[in-house]
């Protein structure tokens, strides 16, 4: 967000430099820049906060190579500017599971946390020194971790299997890496969207049941959870589930 904001500010500096026909640009030139130029004018503390911020971006401009690398034809490109300011990074493996995913935003958020092992599962809570039972609240057989809770746990397994059966998917892998690989392969296929939504909503549904067991001491039967997941998919993407 910060980098995107910088790129947007540079677009305003571009307007001051090249869009002399705009009324606000004429006003800035008439009352502030006057006979100087945007890149040499002395910034005064009397100026408004936003104008000072816009003029200050000229330092970034020099660092990233000037206007010629930020424009396409005669148009300023926020996209190019953003990429230059941000630098190049490798694409994250899980992007197919999060980008263009039409599941509910809160479901996507829980999946995103889970993919990075950032959910407050009891194995992590105990590492932080929280006094809690580390046993999985749904099966009470093994210690709770993201891997156990969503894939190895009997409860989760029954939900996944029931859901795959209802949607006619092959049995889902209990390895997160495999699921990411399937999502990558399925991304451009007809039922890829449905697969990604199902994984996301199922993840969220299991997390909710885990919380319900811990905080309210109740857990829904897996058949009800599967129905709920199918309903959540159907509401957001009715044509996919027909
Ligand atoms: Zn369990």
List keywords for this structure.
single chain, two-stranded antiparallel sheet, 14 helices, 2 strands, binds zinc ion
In total, how many beta strands? 2
Write down the Rg: 26 Å
Mean model confidence by pLDDT: 89
Which strands sit side by side, in order, in the main sheet?
1-2
Major sheet: 2 strands, antiparallel
Bound ligands, named by name, code or SMILES = zinc ion
Choose one word for the global shape. Answer: elongated
| Unreliable segments of 5+ consecutive residues | none
How big a fraction of the residues is strand? under 5%
- Structural class, judged by helices and strands? mainly alpha
Question: What order do the SSEs take from the amino end to the carboxyl end, as H and E?
Answer: HHHHEEHHHHHHHHHH
Number of helices: 14
Helix content: 55-70%
User: How widely separated are the two ends?
Assistant: 38 Å
Q: Any idea how many domains? A: 2
Walk me through this protein's architecture.
- Helix 7 crosses helix 12, helix 10 packs across helix 13 and helix 12 packs across helix 13.
- By secondary structure, the protein is mainly α.
- The chain contains 14 helices and 2 strands.
- Strand 1 (71-72) and strand 2 form a beta hairpin.
- A two-stranded antiparallel ribbon has the order 1-2.
- The model has no long low-confidence stretch (mean pLDDT 89).
- The protein has helices at 2-18, 23-33, 49-56, 58-64, 78-86, 95-98, 105-115, 122-127, 146-152, 154-167, 176-186, 192-216, 222-236, 238-241, and strands at residues 71-72, 75-76.
- The chain has 2 domains: 2-86, no CATH class; 95-241, no CATH class.
- The radius of gyration is 26 Å and the shape is elongated.
């Amino acid at each position: 967000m910060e980098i995107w904001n910088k790129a947007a500010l540079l677009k305003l500096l571009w307007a001051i430099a090249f869009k002399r026909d705009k009324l606000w640009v004429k006003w800035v030139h008439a009352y502030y820049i006057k006979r100087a130029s945007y890149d040499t004018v002395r910034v005064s503390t009397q100026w408004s906060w936003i104008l000072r911020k816009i003029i200050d971006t000229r330092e970034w401009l020099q660092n990233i190579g000037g206007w010629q690398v930020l424009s396409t034809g005669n148009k300023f490109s926020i996209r190019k500017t953003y990429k230059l300011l941000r630098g190049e990074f490798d694409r994250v493996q899980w992007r197919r599971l999060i980008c263009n995913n039409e599941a509910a935003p809160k479901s996507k958020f829980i999946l995103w946390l889970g993919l990075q092992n950032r959910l407050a599962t009891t194995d992590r809570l105990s590492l932080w020194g929280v006094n809690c039972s580390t046993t999985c609240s749904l099966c009470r057989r093994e210690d709770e971790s993201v891997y156990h809770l969503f894939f190895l746990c009997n409860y989760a397994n029954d939900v996944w299997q029931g859901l795959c059966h209802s949607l006619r998917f092959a049995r889902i892998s209990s390895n997160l890496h495999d699921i990411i690989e399937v999502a990558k392969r399925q991304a451009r296929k007809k039922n890829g969207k449905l697969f990604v939504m199902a994984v996301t909503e199922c993840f969220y549904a299991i997390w909710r049941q885990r919380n319900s067991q811990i905080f309210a001491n109740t857990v829904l039967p897996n058949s009800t959870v599967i129905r709920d997941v199918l309903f959540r998919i159907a509401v957001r993407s009715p044509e996919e589930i027909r």
